């Protein structure tokens, strides 16, 4: 039976059970609650068991991908051993004693070299760029990166790269062929996409060369200078502390209950828009005071931990009184009969309204801009190391081993940092509220009338 999240969630606490998935993949849940992924295979008549990782850090899809890679490795090792044994037997028919041992060792080495040359020769004749690309994705990308990110990469490859050079032999592809393909993308006005496609081509050829599928130079190397210059467009964000405080003041008085807290939570946690919008109550742990965002919604291969300050905990508790019985934290109010999150534009529209309210252009700040605000304030404070700040910003870590290590790295310091940051934002908001009250300005009368 195929394993699902529902089956895992229904597992009785304090009991142990081994759940089977498919193709030799199992999930062993111990009485302590620890759940480990295991791959069991019969290899050359012997039963092998390998621990692949732990749930929920490694989700079901990721465990299946890694299990596929490990299965291939086991098969390759068996083939190599059988070839060596076969060569040894042939040598044994001719030699005996110590001479046979020496000759067997040499025969093993020659068999390995012959196998490598034979495979290399066959690959040179048969492998197309598309075949190498799919092998690269299966072995190098899918086991270590999120499903969403891999789907994005494959979408670009299927749209621009594979139609251009996918059917060509890996050794026959030249630099001008690749340059022609990426320049066609540039002509569509997609300069960033052209850069990403070129980077993917380079990575595939680098992998192919490492596997001895072709010799010579990487045809995708040194082509970046041939692309047109890209205009770097940064996400709009505020830099003036008083403006940040006024925006928070306006947001805390915004008419929509959901969006009022959505802006505040994003400001205090500086998560990405999609991570905020699709937040689910199953991710919020009030006891540990942390928000664990699954890897599927991150640009990472592991979940992202957001330590919750007192202010963020209070915001989530206020929301839980309203949507606590649903899946999504920010449930859509337009489709009350469906448990879906609010629209992508909801927070953006609310932000524009708040910016207009305080007399700033509506494009002066976007939700993603809170990440820039946080990075600037935290780095300039001098209180926290850049490594801690970058980890909390959840910038992508491509190396799977390092990503696993960084999964909960610096948590004690990050807890302290997130509380300090929330207190700092509150101080900015309080300062602007007090200034507004003292000046009896437009915001004072607007919000005072609203309260009445």
Verbal overview:
By secondary structure, the chain is of the alpha+beta class. It folds into three domains: 5-60 and 69-120, Integrase, DNA-binding domain (Double Stranded RNA Binding Domain, 2-Layer Sandwich); 129-226, Tyrosine recombinase, N-terminal domain (DNA polymerase, domain 1, Orthogonal Bundle), CATH 1.10.150.130; 241-451, hpI Integrase, Chain A. It has 17 helices and seven strands. The protein has helices spanning 5-9, 60-92, 97-126, 129-141, 147-165, 175-187, 191-210, 241-251, 257-269, 273-277, 310-323, 346-357, 369-381, 386-393, 400-406, 411-439, 442-451, and strands at 17-20, 25-29, 35-43, 46-55, 284-285, 290-293, 304-307. The strands form two sheets. A four-stranded antiparallel beta sheet has the order 1-2-3-4, covered by helices on one side. A three-stranded antiparallel beta sheet has the order 5-6-7. Helix 13 (369-381) packs antiparallel against helix 14 (386-393).
Mean pLDDT across the residues is 80
Question: What CATH architecture of the largest domain would you give?
Answer: Orthogonal Bundle
User: What's the CATH C level of the largest domain?
Assistant: Mainly Alpha
Order of helices and strands: HEEEEHHHHHHHHHEEEHHHHHHH
Q: Give a quick account of the main beta sheet: strands, pairing sense, barrel closure.
A: 4 strands, antiparallel
The named CATH superfamily of the largest domain = Intergrase catalytic core
| Largest beta sheet: strand ordering | 1-2-3-4
Shape: globular
What amount of the residues lies in strands?
A: 5-15%
SS elements, strand count = 7
Report low-confidence residues grouped into runs of 5 or more.
93-104, 116-125, 397-405
Spatial separation of the terminal alpha carbons: 60 Å
CATH topology of the largest domain: hpI Integrase, Chain A
- DSSP helix count? 17
Radius of gyration: 28 Å
Number of domains: 3
| Helix amount | 55-70%
